[in-house]
Write a structure and sequence with these properties.
With 124 residues, the chain is mainly β. Helices cover 10% and strands 47% of the residues.
Length: 124
């Protein structure tokens, strides 16, 4: 049975947060490569620990692999339930939100508000 997010595991959700930066509001939560908390350029673009890859309903990061189980969009915000497999074969579930900003970055927050972050879409 999957565990609920705690403050220690909420970081995984943040990296899962992954779910997207915009090419416009209609493409919110699209497949692509992102960096967490740093614009995807220069050294930040090369750092694997900041990289987040999203394909369909899958999110891959250095913290673990996640599946987006459900998502619901309301304007510029997407609420999602995710399930992540983290090191040690532990499975965790939790609710996260992604909000499209005016600068096309994405604000991320987990259900406990312990690990907010920002995702920046990479050009490639």
């Amino acid at each position: 049975m999957p565990k609920r997010f705690s403050s220690g595991t909420a970081v995984v959700a943040l990296v899962a947060l992954i779910a997207a930066t915009a090419q416009g509001e209609e493409d919110f939560l699209t497949s692509g490569t992102y960096t967490k908390d740093a614009a995807c350029q220069g050294e930040a673009a090369k750092r694997e620990d900041l990289r987040v890859r999203i394909t369909g309903n899958k999110i891959e990061s250095s913290m673990g692999d996640c599946t987006i189980l459900r998502r619901n969009r309301d304007g510029r915000t997407v609420a999602a339930q995710i399930e992540c497999k983290v090191p040690g074969d532990q499975v965790i579930m939790g609710d996260v939100t992604f909000t499209l900003r005016d600068d096309n970055a994405i604000d991320f927050d987990d259900q406990d508000h312990t690990s907010p972050g920002v995702l920046y879409r990479c050009a490639n």
